[in-house]
């Protein structure tokens, strides 16, 4: 089988020395990749600079990205050149990317300048509309500094929503067995499964691995694999999760 795996956590640059990211190490993706490789499959592994990754193998292709935009570009490039039998989208993708950054002083100056252009802002509705328009305009401010000065007492960071990578996977690779992932924190098993089923249906996945951060400690990693029939199987370690995913993907692929 020809397998695509995404793993690790994307980062979004604030300036040339700062970024916002998440705590994903890529350890689960690494083990899943190694499990596929051990069974003789070909693996294209898309990951981030600080994430762990499988050891070099003859059948392994490594692609390194950093931002969600770079991830999107890398995947689209791969989809143009090859067809995948399975896609394991375990990467923790940033929901938002930076739009611009402003000091408190600059933000107030820009907002005040915009609002004082209109003399009819005593009306609450008009004022609200003007504020939304002002924020949209300010958000498009091009950040000039390669490193943001640290002299300001308050820094305003504008974030805008990233595209949902998982949403395009089925469209671009309709033949692939698609495994999505969902991480929640401190929820009941029932809610975890319910949310996992929603993600599965929304993105037309074959399976979703739902897990709770509070149940990931050391070697212990409880994950619930959900299929399109609503059936669930639970694993208690990363190795068990990897074995479960690989066996289910192989089984689904053979049935197609």
Automatic annotation (TrEMBL):
Which positions carry the signal peptide feature in this UniProt record? none
Q: Which GO terms describe its molecular function?
A: ligase activity
Q: Which residues form a coiled coil?
A: none
Which GO terms fall under biological process for this protein?
coenzyme A biosynthetic process
Q: Where is the DNA/pantothenate metabolism flavoprotein C-terminal domain?
A: 2-104, 143-250
The record's listing under InterPro entries reads:
CoaB-like_sf (IPR035929), CoaB_strep (IPR011848), DNA/pantothenate-metab_flavo_C (IPR007085)
The domain of life is Bacteria
Key words of the record: Ligase
Protein's recorded name: Phosphopantothenate-cysteine ligase
């Amino acid at each position: 089988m020809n397998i695509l795996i995404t793993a690790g956590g994307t980062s979004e640059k604030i300036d040339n020395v700062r970024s916002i990211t998440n705590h994903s190490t890529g350890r689960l993706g690494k083990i899943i990749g190694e499990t596929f490789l051990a069974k003789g499959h070909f693996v294209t592994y898309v990951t981030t600079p600080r994430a762990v990754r499988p050891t070099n193998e003859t059948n392994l292709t490594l692609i390194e990205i950093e931002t969600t935009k770079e991830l999107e570009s890398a995947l689209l490039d791969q989809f143009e050149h090859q067809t995948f039998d399975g896609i394991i989208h375990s990467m923790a993708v940033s929901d938002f990317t930076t739009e611009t950054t402003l000091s408190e002083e600059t933000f107030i100056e820009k907002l005040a300048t915009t609002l004082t252009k209109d003399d009819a802002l005593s009306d609450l509705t008009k004022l609200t509309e003007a504020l939304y328009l002002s924020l949209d305009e300010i958000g498009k401010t091009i950040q000039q500094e390669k490193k943001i000065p640290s002299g300001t007492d308050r820094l305003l960071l504008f974030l805008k929503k990233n595209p949902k990578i998982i949403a395009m996977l089925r469209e671009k690779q309709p033949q692939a067995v698609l495994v999505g992932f969902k991480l929640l924190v401190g929820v009941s098993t029932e809610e975890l499964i319910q949310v996992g089923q929603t993600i599965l249906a929304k993105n037309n996945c074959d399976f979703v691995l739902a897990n709770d951060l509070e149940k990931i400690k050391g070697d212990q990693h409880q994950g619930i694999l959900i299929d399109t029939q609503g059936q669930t199987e639970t694993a208690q370690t990363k190795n068990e999760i990897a074995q479960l995913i690989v066996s289910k993907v192989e089984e689904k692929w053979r049935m197609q």
